[in-house]
Design brief:
alpha/beta, Metallo-beta-lactamase, Chain A, 6-stranded mixed sheet, 15 strands, disordered N terminus
Length: 218
Amino acid sequence: MRIANNSTMILRGLELGPFLSNCYIVGSEKTKEGMIIDPCAEAETIMDSVRQLGLTIKLIVATHAHPDHIMALREVKEDTGAPFAIHEAEFTGGITQGMARILGMLATGSFGPSPKPERLLKDGDIIEIGDLSFTVLHTPGHSSGGISLYGHGVVFCGDTLFNFGIGRTDFPGCSYKRLIDSIQNKLMVLPDETIVLPGHGPQTTVATERKWNPFLSD
């Protein structure tokens, strides 16, 4: 998938792991520098795609710290040597491990402590990858430090917004009110044609969700 908007962006989405989470590999066509968003599972598959695209990974970003989005983080980080970034309010071992217990992963040995972030993000920060630039939008609700990344006609929104759905709010640190506020005030104000790339399921657009998402109706 390639979307041109001033700069040309390489974009590949991978649906991986037992929870069918979306991992996104983003890169600059010009510089061949890239980032990985939500290394959710199957590190070998992720790295195979990175090699196929010919990218050098400069950053790994997690939209939030729920285990189904970072199970492959340690392996991907070791393979790429890239720094890990997450919102400053999000990454605590307690939240991560607590969520792992809820999802039943620790009992099976499929998830353990993740690397600590080298970069803590906040609302309004700019992430630059080669000649690509993305704005960090703090979109809490599904988690305290959930973020979305906006730039080049797309928004990577983790589990904040889905195609005709929204993120669940029954986990620790969740808030339905904050989630709806985040969607309305950070995502629905983006241009209609913005492509929404969620943490699970198919892509959609801001215009489609504004008009048809049942959770956003007046």
